Amino acid sequence: MNAPPTGAIPPPSDPEVDEAALLAAARGALDAAYGPYSGVRVGAAVQDEDGRVFAGCNVENASYGLTVCAERNAVARAVGEGARRLVAVAIATSRPDRLPPCGACRQVLREFSEELLVVSEGSDGGTSRWRLSELLPQAFRADDLA
Questions:
Q1: Residues 46-94: pLDDT tens digits?
Q2: Has 71 been annotated as catalytic?
Q3: Fewest Cβ atoms closer than 10 Å to its Cβ: which of 22, 81, 83, 85?
Q4: At 3, is the pLDDT very low, low, confident or very high (cuts 50, 70, 90)?
Q5: What integer pLDDT is reported at residue 4 of this predicted model?
Q6: 3-state SS of the chain?
Q7: Does some domain include residue 49?
Q8: Catalytic residue among 71, 111, 114, 121
Q9: Residue 39 falls within a domain, yes or no?
């Protein structure tokens, strides 16, 4: 088992992010989403610093607290394949709203990049973009454990 990272994770060396391809992967994951309780389906895809893309979808549960968001499922896939530094996440939703990651997902994403590019697309095709540091300016960090 790998030890948790120590210190702040430096920003990635600005690799190229193909937003169209990342959003396409998120849309593909959206098709598999399981959202029978909220009626909201979400797909997400993360890109690591090597350009690899990992997708995940939301999986709801009748016990709402056990629901897992698309972003965290995508991160889990990435980590399971050895990714440790993420550079971007794309989110596609069945709603016209362009949804940013929830608070829990923001914190999980922060574990792997402070300056992650976040791109969100609503069902209307509109997109919004943020940096993770904008969405979670005072993140809990590994340094806070010292």
A1: 999 999 999 999 999 999 999 999 999 999 999 999 999 999 999 999 9
A2: yes
A3: 81
A4: very low
A5: 39
A6: CCCCCCCCCCCCCCCCCCHHHHHHHHHHHHCCCECCCCCCCEEEEEEECCCCEEEEECECCCCHHHCECHHHHHHHHHHHCCCCCEEEEEEEECCCCCCCCCHHHHHHHHCCCCCCEEEEECCCCCEEEEEHHHHCCCCCCHHHHC
A7: yes
A8: 71
A9: yes
- Rounded CA-CA distance 44/22 in Å is 8
- Provide the domain limits for residue 27: 19-145
Residue carrying the six token digits 């940013």: 100
Beta strand 42-48 with 127-131 is unpaired
The domain total for the chain is: 1
Task: For residue 74, give the CATH number of its domain.
Answer: 3.40.140.10
Confidence of residue 7 (pLDDT cuts 50, 70, 90): very low
Reported pTM: 0.88
Amino acid at 39: G
